[in-house]
Amino acid sequence: MVREIVIWPDPRLREEARRVEVVDDSVRALIADLFETMYAANGVGLAAPQVAVAKRVITIDTSPKQEGVKPLALVNPVIVKTEGETVYQEGCLSIPGEAEDVTRAAKVWVKALDKDGKEFEVEATDLLAIALQHEIDHLDGKVFVDHVSALKRGLIKRRMQRLKADREQEKAEGKPSQPQRQGTPGL
Ligand code: GNR
Ligand code: NI
After folding, report:
1. d(CA 30, ligand 1 centre) in Å
2. What CATH number should be reported for the domain holding residue 74?
């Protein structure tokens, strides 16, 4: 099932997600929904808080942009080691239409449980390393704009609030709304 993606700013994207105690069928169903929602939105990663589920579960598939990688589902992922530094222009399905340079570790080693509850470790570079850090940030209530200047973040926040207001209006009216002017011209 494709689920609705929460748009930032939203308190559900600010929460610390809870660790999964047992990887059962409900967690596997969540993983299936994350993959389906991620692919439907053409994303390379998705974290459960982005579909309003406060659990430490993420999916990643950078294979469209990176060779030699496979789709990954990670439960309770933990970064155990990092190396180097790299800058990458990031986007986020919860912050549509925005992209900014973010500095992160160039290489990461991540431990997690797979969909059968078995522990595994992944060693990642390039986009996979970026995506792992970006998704694990979501589990800790962080988004990529928390890594950019307060000025840029403020501008992006205003654009997202406008986008959300417009979408609400579309829902209410059942049709696309015209851009609304801010403030009171002439007063
Ligand atoms: O689809 C996504 N692309 C992306 C590009 C650069 C850095 C990070 C990402 S993750 C993002 C999907 C998303 O929002 N995951 O939380
Ligand atoms: Ni994101």
Report:
1. 19
2. 3.90.45.10
